[in-house]
């Protein structure tokens, strides 16, 4: 089976055109405003070279657990925003009818737009939440991913940096990736990308959980940026194979009970890949609780303050990285702290981290032997470690909320 890696590439572009179209009659109308038990929206921004995987995952959804038809104020709602390169974007609702047959109901068709434009995304999410209010909201963000990095940087860092770094042959073009036949290096939605700050602003409601079916999103910078928009974040420190989550299997623990069973979802994802062979045995996954992030930030801030002179140009070569193609922007947070801190500082950090990371797992390697890397340690959260050669990133990093607290980069 051909597998590619996907990244969530998000650009902030303001659109002038307003949405056209009216919600069609839904199988389970909520016009009276009575909330359902749970509402899950899978936002498939697949207007890219990931389109074939979008169709595959939509098909897998129909083969797995699908909630039954319900009245307002009852049961659960499964929604899929679906946009590919072959057709106009649509909002579907999936449910089983009284004959136990899966129905894929088109709730709305949108005019042509960019799924990862923040204005578009916010409008889609808001309309879904208003049409299907619920006691528990879940969101799956399905697309490419590049963690905390500024828009466009991961694709071509040489165009952002200057001097010797920009000329370095150690930063190859992603199209020269030796895994190009199996991975997705760059894939914005219709040439549109959105960074994590724009994503945070595009989320119109508070979600009980956000799942990233996208690469490199379990970074402390990412989850901290989203701390006021979600109670829990389920994401990967490394890349994600383009076939993504096992959609036949992981919807049941999200929607079949009174509350989403997020740790079970994480285990399903990890077991799915851990039982594969060769480079398909490649996975990292973490479940983080955002309410505990402030305490973690305070501990990390104190450690950074005590080791200020060591931070810039810290030798990051011996820290566990989740990087390929010499794009060295994602390192294991605990491994970094352990090498930087005193024994007492490490103990304080571990205690704070244990309240944030509720579950984490990693395979022994990621694309091992195929331009990949070994995973010797994995705490569940990554971090950037600054380098003076990355001037653009050092200028950008202070704009992140995480750095505003921990002050790693002045």
Which outline best applies?
globular
Quaternary structure type: single chain
- Which CATH class of one domain applies here? Alpha Beta
Largest sheet: 9 strands, mixed
How many E-type strands? 15
- The second-level CATH architecture of one domain is 3-Layer(aba) Sandwich
Rg from alpha-carbon coordinates:
21 Å
- What share of residues are in beta strands? 15-25%
Please give the count of helices. Answer: 13
Uncertain segments are 1-31
Order of helix and strand elements from N to C terminus: EEHEEEHEHHEHEEHHEHHEHHEEEEHH
Q: Quick check: average pLDDT?
A: 87
CATH fold category name of one domain: Rossmann fold
Q: Strands across the major sheet, in which order? A: 5-4-3-2-6-7-8-10-12
End-to-end span in angstroms?
46 Å
Helicity range: 25-40%
Instruction: Please identify the structural class as seen in this structure.
Output: alpha/beta
Describe it for me?
With 410 residues, the protein is α/β, with parallel strands linked by helices. It has a domain at 5-12 and 33-292 and 359-375: Rossmann fold. The protein is 28% helix and 20% strand. It has helices at residues 51-63, 118-131, 163-167, 196-202, 220-225, 252-255, 262-274, 293-306, 308-311, 333-340, 343-356, 391-396, 401-406; strands spanning 5-6, 36-46, 76-84, 87-96, 102-109, 134-142, 207-213, 230-235, 240-241, 284-289, 331-332, 357-362, 365-366, 373-374, 382-383. Strands 5-4-3-2-6-7-8-10-12 form a nine-stranded mixed beta sheet, sandwiched between helices. A two-stranded antiparallel sheet has the order 1-9. The longest helix is centred in the first third of the chain and has 14 residues, at 118-131. The chain is globular, with a radius of gyration of 21 Å. 47% of the residues are buried. Residues 1-31 have low confidence and may be disordered.
């Amino acid at each position: 089976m051909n597998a590619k890696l996907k990244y969530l590439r998000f650009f902030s572009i303001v659109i002038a055109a307003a949405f056209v179209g009216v919600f069609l009659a839904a199988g389970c109308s909520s016009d009276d405003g009575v909330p359902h038990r749970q509402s899950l929206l899978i936002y498939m921004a697949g207007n890219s070279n990931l389109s074939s995987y979008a169709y595959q995952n939509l098909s897998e959804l129909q083969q797995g657990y699908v909630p039954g038809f319900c009245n307002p104020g009852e049961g659960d709602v499964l929604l899929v925003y679906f946009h590919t390169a072959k057709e106009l974007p649509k909002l579907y609702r999936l449910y089983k009818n009284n004959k136990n047959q899966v129905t894929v109901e088109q709730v709305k068709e949108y005019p042509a737009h960019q799924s990862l434009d923040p204005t578009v995304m916010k409008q889609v999410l808001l309309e879904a939440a208003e049409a299907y209010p619920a006691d528990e909201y879940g969101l799956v963000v399905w697309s490419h991913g590049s963690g905390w990095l500024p828009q466009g940087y991961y694709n071509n860092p040489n165009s952002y940096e200057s001097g010797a770094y920009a000329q370095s042959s150690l930063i190859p073009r992603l199209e020269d990736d030796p895994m190009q036949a199996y991975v997705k290096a760059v894939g914005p939605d219709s040439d549109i990308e959105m960074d994590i700050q724009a994503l945070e602003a595009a989320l119109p409601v508070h979600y009980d959980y956000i799942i990233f079916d996208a690469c490199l999103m379990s970074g402390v910078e990412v989850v901290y940026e989203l701390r006021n928009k979600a109670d829990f974040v389920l994401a990967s420190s490394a890349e994600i194979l383009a076939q993504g989550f096992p959609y036949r299997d992981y919807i049941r623990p999200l929607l079949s009970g009174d509350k989403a069973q997020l740790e079970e979802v994480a285990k399903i994802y990890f077991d799915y890949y851990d039982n594969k062979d060769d480079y398909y045995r490649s996975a990292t996954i973490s479940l983080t609780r955002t309410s505990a992030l402030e305490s973690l930030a305070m501990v990390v801030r104190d450690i950074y303050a005590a080791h200020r002179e060591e931070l810039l140009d810290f030798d990051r070569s011996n820290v566990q990285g989740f990087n390929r193609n010499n794009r060295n922007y994602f390192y294991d947070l605990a491994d970094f702290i352990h090498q930087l801190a005193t024994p007492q500082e490490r103990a304080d950090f571990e205690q704070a981290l244990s309240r944030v990371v509720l579950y984490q797992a990693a395979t022994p390697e990621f694309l091992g032997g195929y331009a990949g890397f070994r995973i010797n340690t994995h705490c569940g959260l990554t971090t950037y470690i600054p380098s003076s050669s990355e001037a653009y990133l050092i200028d950008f990093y202070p704009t992140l909320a995480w750095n505003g607290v921990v002050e790693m980069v002045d």
